Amino acid sequence: MRIDVVSIFPEYLAALDLSLIGKARQDGLLQLQVHDLRDFTTDRHRTVDDTPYGGGAGMVMKPEPWAQALESLVASPESDTPAVASRVVDQVSAGERVETQLETPQPAAARPILIVPSPAGEVFNQALAYELALEDHLVFACGRYEGIDERVLEWAAEHFRVRPVSLGDYVLNGGEVAVLAMVEAVGRLVPGVVGNPESLVEESHSDGLLEYPVYTKPSDWRGRGIPEVLLSGNHAKIARHRRDEQVRRTAERRPDLIAALDPEMLDKADRATLSTLGYTITPTQVQPATPMSGVAAEATRHTP
Ligand code: SAM
Description:
Elements: E1 2-7, H1 19-26, E2 31-36, E3 49-50, E4 60-61, H2 63-74, H3 82-93, E5 113-123, H4 126-133, E6 137-141, H5 150-156, E7 161-166, H6 176-187, H7 198-201, H8 235-253, H9 255-259, H10 268-276, E8 280-281, E9 286-287, H11 294-299
Parallel strand pairs: 1-2, 1-6, 5-6, 5-7
Antiparallel strand pairs: 3-4, 8-9
């Protein structure tokens, strides 16, 4: 998979050299490049922002550096239009102002995805991570200040499949932290990046439930034990125990996820666990009970 990230703080993305994502880059599973937006400016001060039309606080990212940066990526030497690409790059590096139009826009479905981190975007989740992991080329445009001039997104839709994506309902100072999270979540789903693909199957959010609690040695630690069944060697019983714990934990911490479940995927034991917790199961929905405090509920369990 090819990933390009454009930012005014390329150093922020240095963490993508580390751990599994760093190794995947070394192994060639991820061709990840970080680009400095200021390299696509043409003035002496390498200006990327200006005051907002209509007034108000803060600055807005100027459209032209973004257009230049994104054009260089959509038509980079690795893509279908090398002549246009090298012309854009040469002119920008020579400090010329260019208004190059890409000559051969790709059909919509073949265009790279442009992810624009934004608190006003669709909220990122595991389903979107799976969807993006199937793509060949992702481009991330890290905003700063009050964000990017809106016309960039309109223009970019002619060359990319544009997706404004939010990390959650809060405001960060820039898109870089969101990109670190998204690249890690997507990158680990690319085949070969995580050594044991089994570990991706049972994770939180892979089947609409949170993961069960996990334990390691010693079995008795500071007076706290582990559920006996985990020492039994009975794989069927262990699987049942883990599933019950998934259902219980999700019901306690994320009633919204339980409410989104298809009742048909719940077996008899799942239904019994949910009924005990006060949930009502109809043929079409699972109706949450009044949610109890997840942390408090969790703390009362597994204490010998
Ligand atoms: N004025 C913007 C608003 O209220 O929607 C917020 C701008 S924020 C200070 C600067 C940049 O941080 C945004 O352009 C975006 O790239 C990034 N950002 C902030 N919060 C984010 C979030 N929850 N998810 C993804 N990116 C975010």
